[in-house]
Amino acid sequence: MVSEESSLKIRNAIEKLSYIPNRNVRSIFGKKSGSIGVIIPSLINPFFSEMATLIGNSIQQDGNGMILCFTEDSPHKEEQAVNMLMEYRVDGIIVARSVNKNLYNGLDIPIVSFETIINEEILTISSDNYFGGKLAFEYLMENNCMRFILFEGPVHFKATNDRSKGFIDAAKKHNIEPIIISLGEDYYLESEVLYNEILRKLDFGKGDGIFAFNDITAISLMDLIQKNGFKIPQDIKIVGFDNSFISRYSSPSLSTIEQSVKEISLKCYFSLINLMEGNKINKNSLTIPVKIIKRDSA
Ligand code: XLF
């Protein structure tokens, strides 16, 4: 217990020296460090950069700091990120699309996960991906598509797997089997080469309705499809997933399944704050609804 007199002396000294408190020292003395770790897979996927911005704004508004890490879906980079965040003694972690679940077992701080089910104790927030896949199929079908191509995401991502399942199950109901093109990874800086290679082998005459597992993939596909001489939406219709801000500005603008990045980010942030305040959350999963956004690509 510090006496009033000493406290006054300390405050005066702080003013004189323009002292900036050291968050790490605060955490050594059992206080909160005032920083929150946010781990996202990618800085160039607009969905995740928007998510980090929205979470970061809330953290700042509450007078705390964000330490942002990205993994490019590498288990090793995720391990480095978690180790670093623990060294900085963050008060909590929000992790999006974890690819290294074991890292979180036994960590003694609040954690909220987006998309990956880490374990029974950690809250997972995710969109209704299965329903989103179904919606994408039904929308293309309503728009008179007859031959479908599904550009599915990496099979080890639960979210994109569920989107594919929803799409395939909806097609099955109409006795339709879509062509499935598996993209082994999300869109990274070097992905154009990979996409070009896949597209060169693909006969677009075989499909007139495309569902791509996220917006950044859909938009880079649209560009390549048009460069190959096909018109969108006249020859080929395409639907993405996310409704990230770039989908409004692509040419043509992208019809897509919206997963509300605002709702997701705020749910992740406030759930974490709740846990940091010592409250219990009685659920271990939370599903955010999705909806179709109709624009010019389908
Ligand atoms: O992990 C999924 C795939 O990509 C995530 O929700 C996203 O849609 C973001 O673009």
List the helices and strands and how they pair.
Layout: H1 4-17, H2 23-28, E1 35-40, H3 46-61, E2 65-70, H4 75-87, E3 92-96, E4 111-114, E5 123-127, H5 129-142, E6 148-152, H6 158-172, E7 179-182, H7 191-201, E8 209-212, H8 215-227, E9 237-242, E10 255-259, H9 261-276, E11 285-288, E12 290-293
Parallel strand pairs: 1-2, 1-3, 3-4, 4-5, 5-11, 6-7, 6-8, 8-9, 9-10
Antiparallel strand pairs: 10-12
The structure holds beta-D-xylulofuranose.
Residues 45, 47, 97, 115, 153, 157, 159-160, 186, 213-214, 216, 241-242 line the site of beta-D-xylulofuranose (XLF).
Nutshell version of this structure?
The chain is an alpha/beta fold and 298 residues long. The protein is built from 9 helices and 12 strands.
Detailed description of the structure:
The chain has 298 residues and is α/β, with parallel strands linked by helices. It is built from nine helices and twelve strands. A six-stranded parallel sheet has the order 2-1-3-4-5-11, with helices on both faces. The chain has a six-stranded mixed sheet with strand order 7-6-8-9-10-12, with helices on both faces. Helix 5 crosses helix 6. It is elongated. The protein binds beta-D-xylulofuranose. The site of beta-D-xylulofuranose has 14 residues, from helix 6 and strand 9. Beta-D-xylulofuranose (XLF) binds next to helix 6 and strand 9.
